[in-house]
Design goal:
It contains 20 helices and two strands. The protein has 476 residues and is an all-alpha fold. Helix 1 runs antiparallel to helix 4 and helix 6 crosses helix 9.
Length: 476
């Protein structure tokens, strides 16, 4: 088992599954579910391999860097492929009951191609290869957004496409500056060669701008709420849980290995933008009248927490940001699935009229509430562990104001989560007969919400996984 190149299998498997779903649409549901289960098994194999042998590097075609392309896996990339596999399995199970046959024939190939692109991105060690995976990821995500019927979905998808292309263009220009200056595209080689120069500053600015646009960090978040709110529920879940995290992962990887020379000023700027995102996203979520828009603006807010680690610059802060990413991915997938269940049952997601619907979906509201506990950062949840690590880092570094942002963001999250949960306690007569929601859709949301609680109770193992290969520079 230790000889199996799991790092390669994790990329080839979902791409092969996607092609099989395209060629055999009548059994695409079964193929998709089997592929998602197999990906989980491969992640377990890669984790076992990393724990036994440490960080892994694989030369594609036998030609490694600098002439060829390397794949690389350490604790950071392992956590990313693990959360993608976990949330991906939940999305597959949920989607198996969500889509009608005509939509399912399009969904499964696109979803598995997106899964393959995510794994390739998290395991790449070549900055141009990262560009290729970003493009595949963006194009499949746009097509999935367009699966929803209506002009609103098409408009949101086109806007999303243009934003993706713009972000990719900025990133590619930055890659060109680095390659022209240092003659390599491999992250490990660039980490040794990069020195301060005007070309490096230009590359930092272009790459960061492109990735921040794709991550939807405030004030570049304008495309996200409409795209997430108009997409089908499982697509909204994967966009919020996984797709926007991919560009953050690239920025984090390059910041840790290539761009530590940037200095504290840019780090403080990212922290300020993250703080603005936490507060602005929370306020906007409070003002929404539709549930899916509330959850979408909550994503804008929660993404801001990830950038608080940059000015703190400590190993414990990076772990806190990564644990926030992990917890948010699972919790937000559960929230969007719960919102999809409510929309399917009642035919609308108007927050003011949820009382008659939510009381008929106890499992769905339980899932939403448990996920909300993590979003608020309350124990015993993964969100609590993440915020505790970030708060500890802010105290240790003497930058207490970032801790204040954590507390304010938690209060805003509590306010907008309770706006939804409070309808459970409000008696209202049913205005029409609620549609039946498949049990599989309700249980999938609940299981994911329970997972985010387990992330708070059993935090030691994921935190230990992050140490493999010392991606954060060692220390605790």
């Amino acid at each position: 088992m230790g000889e199996v190149p799991w790092i390669v299998v994790l990329i080839i498997l979902p791409l092969t599954g996607g092609m099989a779903c395209f060629l055999f649409p009548t059994i695409s549901k079964s193929l998709g579910l089997l592929t998602s289960l197999a990906v989980i098994s491969c992640v377990w194999g890669l984790g076992w391999q990393l724990e036994e042998d440490g960080a892994q590097r694989y030369a594609i075609g036998g030609w490694g860097a600098p002439l060829g392309i390397d794949l690389y896996a350490d604790g950071l990339s392992l956590v990313m492929v693990a959360v993608a596999a976990l949330v991906g399995l939940g999305i597959s199970v949920y989607s198996s009951s969500y889509f009608r046959r005509d939509k399912a024939n399009h969904f499964w190939p696109l979803w598995l191609f997106l899964c393959g692109a995510l794994n390739a991105l998290f395991l790449s060690s070549d900055i141009f290869n990262l560009y290729v995976t970003l493009e595949l990821l963006g194009l499949t995500a746009v097509a999935l957004v367009a699966l929803a019927d209506g002009s609103e979905a098409l408009t949101s998808a086109m806007r999303y496409l243009l934003i993706n292309l713009m972000g990719s263009l900025f990133y590619l220009l930055g890659v060109a500056f680095l390659y022209h200056s240092f003659g390599s595209l491999d992250i490990a080689i660039l980490a040794q060669r990069v020195e301060p120069s005007p070309a490096v500053w230009a590359a930092v600015g272009l790459i960061s701008a492109g990735l921040l646009l794709k991550t939807a960090l405030f004030p570049m978040h304008f495309w996200l709420p409409a795209a997430h709110a108009s997409a089908p529920a499982p697509v909204s879940a994967l966009l919020s849980a996984l797709v926007v995290k991919a560009s953050f992962y690239i920025l984090l990887r390059m910041w840790l290995e290539i761009f530590p020379i940037v200095g504290i000023s840019f780090a403080q700027l990212l922290g300020l933008l993250g703080s603005a995102a936490v507060l602005w996203g929370g306020i906007q979520a409070l003002r929404q009248t539709r549930l899916k828009l509330l959850v979408a603006y909550s994503t804008v807010s929660q993404l801001g927490y990830l950038f608080l680690a940059f000015p703190l610059g400590m190993s414990i802060a990076w772990k806190g940001a990564l644990y926030m990413l992990l917890s948010h991915a699972v919790a937000k997938a559960a929230m969007f699935m719960a919102a999809g269940n409510i929309l399917a049952a009642g035919g609308h997601d108007r927050i003011a009229d949820l009382s008659s619907i939510t009381q008929r979906l106890p499992l769905t509201l339980t899932a939403f509430s448990l996920a909300g506990i993590s979003i608020m950062g309350l124990p015993p949840s993964g969100g609590f562990i993440a915020k505790w690590l970030l708060l500890e880092a802010s105290i240790q570094s003497g930058q207490w104001w970032w801790g204040a942002i954590l507390l304010l963001g938690g209060l805003l999250a509590a306010a907008y989560v309770f706006r939804v949960v409070s309808h459970v306690f409000t008696q209202a007569e049913a205005t029409h007969e609620a549609r039946e929601v498949p049990a599989r859709m309700e249980w999938t949301a609940l299981v994911l919400a329970l997972v985010v609680i387990f992330l708070g109770v059993f935090a030691s193992w994921p935190l230990a996984m992050m140490e493999i290969g010392s991606p954060f520079g060692g220390g605790s």
